[in-house]
């Protein structure tokens, strides 16, 4: 088993006929925490969508958690996504059911059958994001930060090899953003690999880590100066 969870070689990303990013070369290894930064419209979302199969990779090479993005078939996409944990900016929780039922719904959808094991798994991921007493609440009864913690818990359900977090603090105030970052940092310390798209430079300064930047149709690594 290779410790590389994501590798792109001379990859170009298109939105329809339009070139968004060209000649991407990068590698993310197991246990890394990597930021993806760039202005709105610089290609961060298209980059993320290509990784979870929403946009097809048509040029170059791309491997993610043992899947070849160039050869990825429509029917393989659900299986790829089971190996990924995806956290969106807008939580995407089902409003008509409790937090426990939101998480059980995902487990059922991804093939879990044993009720006792499912209940145990839900309790375990809620504990990891410090939300174990909130399972009986509905999403609207939680704050934005709490809903994002639940979204992170949902991403952890199937023990993903890579978590893709697309602007996970984008809708949150600065203090809540820090709380959510602390959760992501803790999960990363426990061995989960995280690639996080963000435009919140304050978080980069507070939690420095490997940083990739989308700019001028390219993706390149930027060297961060350590805060004094």
Automatic annotation (TrEMBL):
An example GO BP is: cell division
Q: Name one Pfam family in it.
A: ABC_tran
Question: A cellular component term (GO) from this record?
Answer: plasma membrane
Tell me the ranges covered by the ABC transporter domain, including all copies: 6-227
UniProt keyword annotation of Repeat present: no
Q: Which domain of life is it from?
A: Bacteria
Spell out the molecular function terms from Gene Ontology.
ATP binding; ATP hydrolysis activity; transmembrane transporter activity
- For the keyword Protease, the answer is no
SUPFAM superfamilies tied to this protein: P-loop containing nucleoside triphosphate hydrolases
Q: Which UniProt keywords apply?
A: ATP-binding, Cell cycle, Cell division, Nucleotide-binding
SMART domains given for it?
AAA
Cross-referenced Gene3D superfamilies, in alphabetical order? P-loop containing nucleotide triphosphate hydrolases
The UniProt similarity line reads: Belongs to the ABC transporter superfamily.
Q: In UniProt terms, what function does this protein have?
A: Part of the ABC transporter FtsEX involved in cellular division. Important for assembly or stability of the septal ring.
Protein name as annotated? Cell division ATP-binding protein FtsE
User: What's the source species for this entry?
Assistant: Olleya namhaensis
Q: What is the lineage of its organism?
A: Bacteria, Pseudomonadati, Bacteroidota, Flavobacteriia, Flavobacteriales
